[in-house]
Fold these 2 entries.
Entry 1:
Amino acid sequence: MLVRKVHLQQRHPGDLRPARTPPEPAAVLRADQLSGDVPRALYHLIGRAHGWTARRCWDAHDWEQHHARPDREIWVARYRRAHVGFAELAVHGSDVQIKYLGLMRSFQGRGLGGQFLTEITRQAWRMHERVAGAPVVRRVVLTTSSLDGPSALSNYLARGYSVVDRTTARCRLPVPAGALYRVMARP
Ligand SMILES: CC(C)(COP(=O)(O)OP(=O)(O)OC[C@H]1O[C@@H](n2cnc3c(N)ncnc32)[C@H](O)[C@@H]1OP(=O)(O)O)[C@@H](O)C(=O)NCCC(=O)NCCS
């Protein structure tokens, strides 16, 4: 399968064009304020539709070790009483990467994704204040792809990210469990 990728960046905190605040905004929380199961469940529930496969075999211990990394931050969006969004920031020198960002499907399209990206971008620009020894953030970067939702790219462009590069990659996505079962069940 051919996957089209778009690489984006902001080069200054002033590049951010904040989204309109929705009538009922989500709370955006650091994952370490929550039970470890919450981010793990959100990663799988949101990511399974978008090829987030890198952590599909991680157990609770792997997630614990990941949470302990000072150069990574997981953030969660909470709407009313539900945890609905997952985002992760990663420090790479003076770049901060938005490694993941997504909402549960039934909470998309009502203004929460724009608000979540606005808050995560603000946190990305300030990440050096929270990570000992990290250089001042010079760029916020991310990659979106044709595996992402239909409004992902327009959300990034609307928030002031600009396109740096476009690439393609040939990917072998894991076979869904149902398809594997059907193949194995054949006489
Ligand atoms: C991408 C995602 C976070 C956007 O969140 P959302 O709640 O659906 O979007 P919102 O309603 O807050 O709208 C935010 C922006 O998306 C764009 N957008 C919203 N609906 C759209 C549509 N139907 N078509 C095109 N763009 C649309 C607009 O640019 C909008 O910003 P604006 O209103 O300031 O112009 C969400 O759809 C999602 O989680 N998708 C699945 C995971 C994913 O693709 N993540 C991105 C990985 S890089």
Entry 2:
Amino acid sequence: MALADLSQVTTIDRIAFDIPWSLRTYQYEILESPYSHMVVMEKHTEHPAPAWWRWVPRILQRDLTEHQVLGYGGMWMISGSAHISTIAVHPDARGQGWGELLLLGMVRRAITLDAHEVTLEVRVSNDRAQNLYRKHGFETTSIKPHYYRNNDEDAYEMCLSIHRAESRARAESSFIRAMLQRGVTDTFSDSDLPPHLTEDGR
Ligand SMILES: CC(C)(COP(=O)(O)OP(=O)(O)OC[C@H]1O[C@@H](n2cnc3c(N)ncnc32)[C@H](O)[C@@H]1OP(=O)(O)O)[C@@H](O)C(=O)NCCC(=O)NCCS
């Protein structure tokens, strides 16, 4: 996720969540937080250049590729534990496997960073998201009463253990299968740490 993605990301965020994050929060997560790993799933559409385009000086030429954000996610890596802080898919793109791919991409990132577990919180009423997490091996570990401040709703805390080699292998092969099925290129899960993370550590 880059600053240029934030207008699309915050638009999806406001639709997806009752308590959306502010623009400033996203800027902090991308540029400053020593714990955050933020990702977007983008669809790239190449627009063919019109005939007169070759007369435009190269220095003035803009990228004619359209970058459409289909979904995004965020993960905090703290003391060997990865915590999924957010995940959402644009309403028009839901039900097509993108949420699954985002989740598996973050789990793969956690494996790359040597995490022993991936945790998250989810509203007790959010069946869709719970199904997604259970499908990929997350289990409920506790209930956090009155966790959501807008309506006092409880949260389930869920956890996927990636301590054992078999569970890491299972998660990685699910990710690779999902990527191949959808012809997606991954530049996130084992990419270098952004500059502000390399000194502070994870
Ligand atoms: C949760 C969310 C990210 C899922 O993304 P998605 O792209 O629609 O999900 P996918 O198409 O990848 O579906 C993967 C699995 O999720 C579950 N799921 C998805 N949509 C579902 C629905 N309408 N009903 C029940 N389960 C559903 C299923 O287990 C599904 O697997 P299956 O297709 O084999 O049954 C998306 O619904 C969303 O953005 N919701 C709003 C934000 C949110 O609630 N985030 C989670 C916060 S904890």
